[in-house]
Amino acid sequence: MALPKHASRLERIWHYTYLVICALIFLFLMAPILVVIPLSFNAEPYFTFTEKMLRLDPEGYSTRWYDLLLTFGMQAPDAARDGSWWADAWSNAAWIQATKNSIIIGFFSTLLATVLGTIAALGLSRPEMPGRRVIMAILISPMIVPIIIVATGLFFFYSAISIQDWGIPYLGVILAHATLGIPFVIITVTATLVGFDHSLTRAAASMGASPTLTFLRVQMPLILPGVISGALFAFVTSFDEVVVVLFVGGLDEQTIPRQMWNGIREQISPAILSVATILVLISIALLTTVELLRRRSEKLRGLSPG
Amino acid sequence: MTDATFSPDEDVAKAPAKGLTTADGRPLKQALARAQSHARWRAFFLVAPLLAFILLTFVVPIGQMLHRSVYNDGFTLHEDIGSGTQTPLMTNLKTWFKDNPAGTDPDEAAFAALAADLLVLREVKAAGQAGTRINYELSGSRSMFTKAARRAKKLEPPYKEAILDLDEDWGDPMLWRVMRDATSAYTANFYLAAMDRTKDVDGNVVSVNENRQVYVKLFTRTLMLSLLITFLCFLLAYPIAHLLATLPLAKSNLLMILVLLPFWTSLLVRTTSWMVLLQSQGVVNDALVSMGLLGDENRLQMMYNQLGTIIAMTHILLPFMVLPLYSVMRPINPSYVRAARSLGATSWTAFRRIYFPQTVPGIGAGALLVFILAVGYYITPALVGGADGQLISNLIAFHMQKSLNWSLAAALAALLLGGILLLYWLYDRLVGIDNLKLG
Amino acid sequence: MKIKTALLASALTSVGFAAQAAEVTVMSWGGAYTKSQVEAYHKPFTAETGIKINSVDADNPATPIKAQVEAGNVSIDVADVEFSDAVRLCDEGLLEEIDSSILPAAPDGTPAADDFIEGALQDCAVANIVWSTVMAYNTENNATAPDSIDDFFNIADYPGKRGLRKSAKATLEMALMADGVPAGDVYDVLDTDEGVDRAFAKLDSIKSDIVWWEAGAQPPQLLADGEVVMSTAYNGRIFNAAVGEGQPLEIVWDGQILDFDLFVVPKGAPNKDAALQFISFSTDTQRLADQASWISYGPARKSSGALVGTYSDGKTEMAPHMPTAEANLGNALVNNFEFWVDKDAELNERFNAWLAN
């Protein structure tokens, strides 16, 4: 992208204009994320920077909204913060309940999606897989079909089979979220298997390795980065999903996004922004993990100098 | 696992002496075919559990929804919630409709049948349900059923007179046309309604009254806004994808984080942030006012309207455009452009004739993906769209959750689904699903 | 052996029953209103009976009831709904009937049936409060204070955004009243096509300045944030924001629309008995009066009136803030539930088409 020495004046002007345009677009991409973090420390219940905040006066900042996240929904939020206060928060605070639910649902749906998705990706990446294109299209479609349609369909389906009477909590939401997460697992795992040399497995077999051993020692190390990033994608999908939860989730199955959805519509107090900030930090952590995994995978497969 | 027609003994016996054979004496061709069939089955069995899972949790529910869009038994069957007892409704009327062709004026026998059916409605408390079904196609008729059912016991012959006495609208030929249709649970009328059409007295398809037309408008709006958002995404994604693709890998990886971080951030978080930024007492307006660019009383309304939907959705979908563009631009060899320049092309011509055409596949892939995702958006328009920034998904949600006209919701969803699948097929043909990449 | 099994079985069923009865799910409207119910009903109920209340919120609890019952997946035991919705849901067989004889008599012995104000007891519903839809404004964002419903529709003299509930009910009536229809004639006019057109024409005049709200907690928020200068709202929410939180909000009582909120039990509610127990506990004289000290809604029992005292801050007299206070009834409309039972679907359909255009 460096400007050649012989560039004309017009080209120079254009080059710098172009860089400014790019900077503005990057600003557009990052602005919402950047603005949420400082505002979540606002001492006032407003969504804009107060004068004190702009002057960087410590009085303009506070962690009261983070505190509210803990106390909201508690039986006795004003009691002394001893053991029983924390016990109260643990069992009653609305956001803590939502976090628990989100993690339970996210964990099981990710597990389901990752196991089924990885096995299927192994099959799909075999050259002899029949009807590959059609099956792939079906398996990826949950990512493409609008979520409202999925939620509508599941609402009818779950009422028809009375899934809530089966006595397994969160089952409906877990199955739905697993379905939504599967395309990500398939995509990431098949990507790691692109260019996989199948003679490796044959070589292992010819040396007497059982299929299981071949899988564990030859294929697994190669696909593991893909499996983990697929799982992370699936987890994020579940962790961020609200429409299906709204449509088929029980009243007690409040998740973080559902709690946010209610909060945004009722009163977007800066408490919502503190949740948002925490979620941004989580996504930074996840993104870093996935990037590291991707590089490791490319290195393993010799695709990049990494 | 084994091929059903395959029997080793037979095959060995039949094996001709000539030609290549394996160590155990089978013809090589056959053994190979068998091995390949094994391999195919093995591959398929790996995929089968997931395929079954997707069929059950995804394909079947959507199929059921499609069924719902052509099937509504509100006027023909009542199920008691507590006991689960099912009672057929409007049976007498159904018989009368069967005996008399469409267009017959309802006579005393018809009204007698109606009176008998109303009595059943009253007994099982299904007047509201039956009335609601008719009300979908003829506004204002719901209350006629509930009122008439409440007085059903007092009705005496001649029934025609007695019922018309309750409400003269019972003589409306339109009502009878609708009731005739509704006595069959299968109907295409919800699709008509989803396209702002209805049937007139004679069963001809006509447009609904202008002040009730809404769906075609919303489909059109969804389409137009999605196109606009796709175009905006393209405009914003192209320069930065180009920058990322031409920078050295180390730098571009760093900048790529700025694209990927929003991509990984919760949809609700991003939507909330846009509300904070754009509302009239929000950050952007405050900044403009304090810089003196805007009077305090002229704050821009950028939220709770179409503009809010467009800005927030463009932001959310932008990474889906950047990533495919980047993956197409990265391998483009810069020497082509240099060659064009050295042959005398201006930088604009070199870009237009040499560089741009090579990026078209990326544009196609990104645009299709963004468009497909935009058409089905629900959350963001619901939160920031106000009244005129709502998309078709919001209307589906409205009919699912508020008006509870589930058949209409299903019909709208089916139309939307049809469009999406068409685009999906196109995407598969042009781009190939295998080429879908994440990050 | 047989006896043992039988014993075990009965022990199990009784455990199961106890576990079931130990919780009632109550669905209400969220925000300050739910809080008032939690303080006045839920907490004392749990303290007395040991039955835990699981409190959940909806924009309008009538819609999830219908969806749940029709989908055969009922998890709500008690819901708090508007008058026309209570009647309509009952008509459609979606609610359990409630025998008013289970309700406690007034302290002076007057039976419940006579103690509740007229219309408060229905086949399937027991009213708890009288509330109203009012117009409210932010005193800091209006140069001159609006004092009538006409001002809501007068953008020229009162510039700024307006907040309105995203539903036909109350919105159309207010439009007609602002258009000069006397409160007494509103429903007669709205019953005709011309009347409906007239209401929408009036709404057209401010359409581009409307911010729509759905949850009751939104209007005080929109007003306080300055997103709108005036809004329709549930009167109690404005009272709590103004008196409880010190926001600069004021109510204009002119053109208020009074309505009941009633407790109902959805058909097939999982804990029906406990639900009825909760309703009869909550709607006794004292409890209804207690609720009025948390939010400015009028109790549905005559005998509660005398017990209504001050707000939970200990100094604000509640009586003048009630929608039913004499001074506030100058130009008030009582919601005609029969009209909305019949017309709700039709007018909302028209309303949505109007919104989308």
Automatic annotation (TrEMBL), chain A:
Q: Where in the cell is it found?
A: Cell inner membrane; Cell membrane
Q: Origin, by domain of life?
A: Bacteria
Any stretches that span the bilayer, and where are they? 16-41, 103-122, 134-158, 170-196, 222-248, 268-293
UniProt entry keywords in alphabetical sequence? Cell inner membrane, Cell membrane, Membrane, Transmembrane, Transmembrane helix, Transport
Cite the PROSITE patterns for this sequence. Answer: ABC_TM1
Residue stretches making up the ABC transmembrane type-1 domain: 99-290
Its membrane topology, per UniProt? Multi-pass membrane protein
| GO terms of biological process kind | transmembrane transport
Identify the GO cellular component terms for this protein: plasma membrane
Q: Which Pfam families match?
A: BPD_transp_1
Could you confirm whether the keyword Transmembrane appears in this record? Answer: yes
Coiled-coil segments: none
| Family affiliation | Belongs to the binding-protein-dependent transport system permease family.
Indicate what this protein is called per its UniProt record: Trehalose transport system permease protein SugB
Q: What is the originating organism of this protein?
A: Tritonibacter multivorans
UniProtKB/TrEMBL annotation, chain B:
Its name, as the record gives it, is Spermidine/putrescine transport system permease protein PotB
Query: Which CDD domains does the UniProt entry name for this protein?
Result: TM_PBP2 (cd06261)
Q: Does the keyword Cell membrane apply?
A: yes
Q: Does the keyword Transport apply?
A: yes
Q: Where in the cell is it found?
A: Cell membrane
Which parts of this chain are annotated as the region Disordered?
1-21
A Pfam family hit: BPD_transp_1
Domain spans labelled ABC transmembrane type-1: 219-427
| Superkingdom in the source lineage | Bacteria
Membrane topology of the entry = Multi-pass membrane protein
So what family is this one in?
Answer: Belongs to the binding-protein-dependent transport system permease family. CysTW subfamily.
Q: Which Gene3D superfamilies match?
A: MetI-like
SUPFAM superfamilies, per the entry: MetI-like (SSF161098)
* A single Gene Ontology CC term: plasma membrane
Q: What is its main location?
A: membrane
UniProtKB/TrEMBL annotation, chain C:
Record key words, sorted: Signal
- Give the range the annotation lists for the signal sequence: 1-21
List the InterPro entries hit by this protein, alphabetically. Answer: SBP
* Source organism, top-level taxon: Bacteria
Output this protein's name.
Answer: Spermidine/putrescine-binding periplasmic protein
Which Gene3D superfamilies does the record match to this protein? Periplasmic binding protein-like II
Native organism taxonomy: Bacteria, Pseudomonadati, Pseudomonadota, Alphaproteobacteria, Rhodobacterales
